Amino acid sequence: MKFSDKCQRIVLRISLSVMVLLSIILSGYIWGSDTRFSRMEQDSNQPAIKKNVGQKSLREIYTPTQVFYYRDKQLYQAYDAKRNLTLEFSKFTKKLEGHKINKIKSNSTFYRQLLHDEKYFQLTFPDQITISLFLPRANKYLDGEFNRIFVSTKDKKYLYLGDDRNNTLYRVYANVSFKNLYKHIQKAASQIPISLEKLKDGFCVSYNKDQQMAIYSYLTYKETDAYFVYKLLDSGNPTQRNADDYIAYYNGIYQRLVAYKKTHNYEFVDYQQNKIPNTTTKILIDSLFYVRKICLNEPDLRFFDASNNTISYQKFVEEYPVFLPEDNNVRAKVTFTRSCMQINFNSLDLRIPIPTNGAKKELQATDKIIDKLLQAGYKKSYLEKIIIGYKVCHDTNKTSNLIDLIPTYYIKINGRWHSLDAWLNNNYEVHIPASQQGGISNGF
């Protein structure tokens, strides 16, 4: 009997020890779980999100999109489908020493001379970015902005960063050689003669002759609403409201995702993120963080436009941006305000290029396009930018997953991008504030 009691006590002690040990292990797992802890922490005090995107991601997204060089006193736009010239340049520049940078005296005359200097080739961004984004090791002029890079063809030790809006120039010491890149530019398969046209936001590409542009076809894919609900709403059980044109998903009072039924457009609003980033560079980086959060990971997604704390991204095909139908024509747009952060995006993903019969569309020379806009009543001072882009068109003779990319002129007026036909055929109101009339305004 004593032996039996002793065994029972031993078994009981062992059982209690095992239960205590198991309790400690489970507690450690629960409290150590990143997901569990982050959700509890978010529910209690809603801390700021740490927004890391990585230098590789930044250089792939914030990269030049066009290359120009002079040959026999004529400026050419160079492109090679087999060799990504702008990405090659970005790989070289990650080695630049950012501490050797100086702002130099410049005016419109000096800037124009550099634009027409045959001893430099040029690379341009779709809009202004900052020096600290381009040169992470820079220790001054961190929020200086530029959209054009001048690189010597003679292997000099400096390159120049230029801002078309105000003729500002920065000189950067280049501890790398661009000789091989320049040779590739000279041998690029596509060489289009161009000139530069001064508009409100800077210098745009002006095509001197009518252009025959290729039409492309793509097989597309669209993610479901459930995918974006999972990615964006911090809730496993959001409330839902169904309307005629949209479905709205809510995570309490802080987050809302609206899915529009026929256009594949989405709008996400987060009222917890109610601070505007305090520097231009941080605005650019934080916007990319949110674009990554919705997993828009196409290899050709690029920074496209920046204005009034709003950053836009587009997919690029053959160095030209792809515009979606309707007014919400960008792939993703992130807006920061003092009340919320808002993302507008589209789920249409260009997945697989489809072989075509070589169809092309003729686009008129740029000066003819400007004449059409002037005849329609738009003043030249209204024109901020003119570019060639690809318009997404659904062919009624094809399945719904196939689209055509039709080359089209796009014009930015009053901060809005529309196709040439849209500006000519619609009665868009153009409001130019008195403080901006006759001046240059864009960026941040």
From TrEMBL:
Gene3D superfamilies: 3.10.450.310. It comes from the Bacteria. CDD domains: YycH_N. Pfam families: YycH. It comes from Lactobacillus iners DSM 13335. The chain crosses the membrane at residues 12-32. This is YycH protein. InterPro entries: YycH. Keywords: Membrane, Transmembrane, Transmembrane helix. Residues 15-421 form the Regulatory protein YycH domain. The lineage of its organism: Bacteria, Bacillati, Bacillota, Bacilli, Lactobacillales.
